[in-house]
Design a protein that fits this description.
Layout: E1 2-10, E2 13-23, E3 29-33, H1 37-53, E4 62-68, H2 80-90, E5 103-104, E6 107-108, E7 114-115, H3 120-124, E8 131-135, H4 136-142, E9 149-153, H5 156-163, H6 196-208, E10 212-215, H7 222-227, H8 238-250, E11 266-267, H9 275-279, E12 280-281, E13 286-287, H10 289-292, E14 297-300, H11 308-312, H12 315-320, E15 322-327, E16 330-335, E17 339-344, H13 363-371, H14 376-379, E18 383-386, H15 392-396, H16 404-421, H17 435-441, H18 446-459, H19 463-479, H20 487-495, H21 499-504
Parallel strand pairs: 3-4, 5-8, 8-9, 10-17, 10-18, 11-14, 14-17
Antiparallel strand pairs: 1-2, 2-4, 6-7, 12-13, 15-16
This protein binds adenosine-5'-triphosphate (ATP), magnesium ion and zinc ion.
């Protein structure tokens, strides 16, 4: 019996799969055990044809192939290459001992060519110190992982030659991973005139990881502001970057010359997106927008226009920081720790809060529009900020607003403070504090405590809103470099919740 090593990716983790091939006895046929029915048939045809078209003759014998362990719900075509090699080894065309030295992956085209694979980074990073033989097109991506040795092959014939020592194939060379983010951005916060309050709120949101909603009339600059958020995001550390890269790799989104993704993701799906596109799913469950936004920002522009079921599907992930997608008997969990940024008009016509234009909507229309996002989702948003229409004077002002780089410096300093505070925790941002942490780190001074109490009564805030105020206040005091949360920080934090009653009741 011949044994070939391969692997399968579930979510962003990979598991070993052994492919056992045996020949002899019975009528001539190819039997595959351990794959779902549909995949078996397809894989068998591809492998058989690819072997024939690569110029190899198979004996007229029964060939039995078993994929172990049986409990893993294995799907996908990446086993074609190891299966073909196992069969060829049974015929003495490949040295059997070589098949345990590498982990083999690859889908075969009918002519024996190897097709690129999804998720190779997730696979190579799951097996420390191993060697891989996989499709050339996926090899530079696979080699991002430092202690993986990757041999790129173009087709079945070349793989056989390599294993027989007849072809000299070099492993993919390691490139130094640069720690600097790539080229600068084309946009900058200095282009946005006025909107001081909104910019301040964005700075707080990014610094502490608080979810934020912009409310304002058309053309006030909501989209413009959001599009500039990537310019102030702090850099990712290596572990974060690797995780983000794995998710993109599993989603089949390849990147220029297979380098690690260094920039925090900024995803802005259109409001027509389905709930599967947002949260993930499909035949072989793939990560959705919320997972692609992991460690970064998910921007939902025109928030109320999103499908109700799509927004509802965000509730769980917003709470858990991960999402589980299931299909048939397969269940896969993807990380989804993203910062939610949403934007909307205050009413269908958009001019409710604009004194110069006036609103033409009926009360019923306004209510219907808002009810699309009201309730549980809204309750999970930390900061609500109005983005008012700008006066001509502000737009025409000569003064150049603060540059993104300056804001980013403050954000980074604030993140560093939090990192130090939460060094023993699995999270490093204020927004993720649990009630115990809040009590320990965000209890305001006496005057501040009185202020929250009064706000709770007056604005009829929920318990969730109470904790949110304390967390936001913690970030505000971190930005100010204060050890303790003071009443002025509480006062500012309350402002970001003051829309609660006015808007949504
Ligand atoms: N504060 C500002 N400073 C400079 N230009 C601005 C500002 N606000 C808006 N603009 C200009 O107006 C355009 C429209 O802004 P933007 O698309 O961000 O509005 P919006 O609030 O998203 O509107 P809508 O509700 O219709 O989506 C911008 O592309 C920009 O040219
Ligand atoms: Mg807009
Ligand atoms: Zn209106």
């Amino acid at each position: 019996m011949i044994r070939v090593k391969s692997a399968i990716c579930m979510g962003i983790h990979a598991f070993p799969v052994d492919i056992e091939v045996d020949t002899g006895g019975g009528i001539p046929q190819l039997i595959l055990v351990g794959l779902p029915d549909a995949s078996v048939k397809e894989s068998r045809e591809r492998v058989r044809t690819a072997i024939k078209n690569s110029g190899y003759q198979l004996s007229q014998e029964k060939i039995t192939i078993n994929l172990a362990p049986a409990e893993l719900k294995k799907e996908g075509a990446a086993f074609d290459l190891p299966i073909a090699l196992g069969i060829l080894a049974c015929h003495g065309l490949v040295p059997a001992e070589k098949l345990c030295e590498f982990i083999f992956l690859g889908e075969l085209a009918l002519d024996g060519t190897l097709r690129p694979l999804r998720g190779v980074v997730a696979i190579t990073s799951s097996f420390k110190g191993k060697s891989f033989v996989l499709p050339a097109e996926s090899s530079s991506e696979a080699a991002i992982v430092k202690d993986a040795t990757v041999y790129p092959v173009k087709n079945l014939k070349e793989t056989v030659a390599f294993l027989c020592g007849e072809a000299n194939i070099q492993s993919v060379p390691k490139r130094a991973v640069s720690s600097k983010p790539a080229a600068g951005s084309a946009v900058d916060f200095s282009e946005v005139k006025g909107q001081r309050a909104a910019k301040r709120a964005i700075e707080i949101a990014i610094a502490g990881g608080h979810k934020i909603l912009f409310l304002g009339p058309p053309g006030s600059g909501k989209t413009m502001l959001a599009r500039r958020i990537p310019t102030i995001l702090p850099p990712m550390d290596f572990e974060e970057a690797l995780e983000v890269t794995k998710i993109h790799s599993v989603a089949g989104l390849t990147f220029p010359n297979g380098s690690l993704l260094r920039e925090r993701p900024f995803r802005s799906p259109h409001y027509t997106s389905s709930s599967v596109a947002l949260t993930g799913g499909g035949a072989d469950p793939r990560p959705g927008e919320i997972s692609l936004a992991h460690h970064g920002v998910l921007f939902l522009d025109e928030f109320p226009e999103f499908r109700r079921d799509a927004l509802e599907a965000l509730r769980g992930p917003l709470e858990d920081g991960s999402v589980t997608v299931s299909r048939a008997k397969m269940q896969v969990t993807y990380p989804a720790q993203f910062l939610l940024v949403a934007a909307m008009n205050p009413c269908p016509c958009g001019h409710l809060s604009d004194p110069r234009r006036g609103c033409r909507c009926s009360l019923g229309q306004i209510h219907k529009y808002r009810s699309k996002v009201s309730g549980p989702i809204l309750d999970r948003i930390d900061i609500q900020i109005e983005v008012p229409a700008l006066s001509f004077q502000t737009l025409a002002a000569r003064e150049i607003p603060e540059a993104s780089s300056t804001i980013r410096e403050r954000v980074c300093a604030c993140r560093a403070t939090q990192k130090k505070r939460f060094r023993m925790r699995p999270y490093q941002i204020n927004a993720l504090m649990n009630p115990k942490d809040i009590k320990e780190h965000a209890t305001p001074d006496l005057q501040g405590q009185k202020l929250v109490e009064a706000a709770m009564k007056e604005l009829h805030l929920s318990a969730r809103a109470y904790y949110k105020i304390l967390k936001i206040a913690r970030t505000i005091s971190d930005l100010a470099g204060c050890e303790q949360v003071q009443s002025e920080h509480i006062a500012e934090a309350i402002q970001y919740r003051s829309l609660d009653r006015q808007w949504w009741s």
